[in-house]
Design a protein that fits this description.
Elements (H helix, E strand, L loop, with lengths): L11 H13 L6 E2 L4 E4 L2 H7 L6 E7 L3 E7 L8 E2 L5 H14 L5
Antiparallel strand pairs: 1-2, 2-3, 3-4, 4-5
Helix pairs in contact: 1-3
Length: 106
């Protein structure tokens, strides 16, 4: 797999709107800025996502696919995957789906 960086391309208004939409679905965003939206995983969401201890869910943008997600740290996500969303509402819904079912967007 290619190690693509999550880039600094998200406008502040977009980051804030997506953060608000994610939190409205009951998830706590622990960090948000133009580079990434970071959600610390609970023991339940760690099991759901099959995450390693210390990993976080990171939402960001890569040049390859636009809105991506991955497990890692805010400064390094080894294998970001397309979130498959074009709007803030879709991105928040798919993030919620990941956190509650582990179902990866396709």
């Amino acid at each position: 797999m290619t190690d693509l960086p999550i880039t600094d391309e998200m406008p502040d208004t977009w980051v804030q709107a997506l953060t608000t939409a994610i939190e409205a679905r009951g998830h706590k965003v622990t960090d948000c800025h133009e580079s990434a939206i970071v959600i610390n995983l609970t023991p339940t969401t760690m099991r759901t996502l099959d995450a390693d201890p210390g990993e976080q869910l990171v939402i960001g943008w890569t040049e390859r696919a636009g809105i991506d997600w991955g497990l890692g740290r805010a400064d390094h996500v080894p294998d970001p995957q397309p979130l498959g969303a074009d709007t803030i509402t879709e991105a928040a819904a798919r993030t919620h789906l990941l956190l509650t079912t582990g179902r990866r967007p396709r």
